[in-house]
Amino acid sequence: MLHDIALLAAVTLVGVLEQAFFALQVIASRRKYSVSPPKTTGPPEFERVFRAQINCFEYFPLFLAVLWLAGIFFHQGTASICGLLYLVARYYYFQGYSVSPKERLGPMYLSAGILWLLIGLSAIGILHELLLHYLDFKLM
Amino acid sequence: MLHDIALLAAVTLVGVLEQAFFALQVIASRRKYSVSPPKTTGPPEFERVFRAQINCFEYFPLFLAVLWLAGIFFHQGTASICGLLYLVARYYYFQGYSVSPKERLGPMYLSAGILWLLIGLSAIGILHELLLHYLDFKLM
Amino acid sequence: MLHDIALLAAVTLVGVLEQAFFALQVIASRRKYSVSPPKTTGPPEFERVFRAQINCFEYFPLFLAVLWLAGIFFHQGTASICGLLYLVARYYYFQGYSVSPKERLGPMYLSAGILWLLIGLSAIGILHELLLHYLDFKLM
Question: What fold characterizes domain C2-135?
Answer without folding.
Answer: Four Helix Bundle (Hemerythrin (Met), subunit A) (1.20.120)
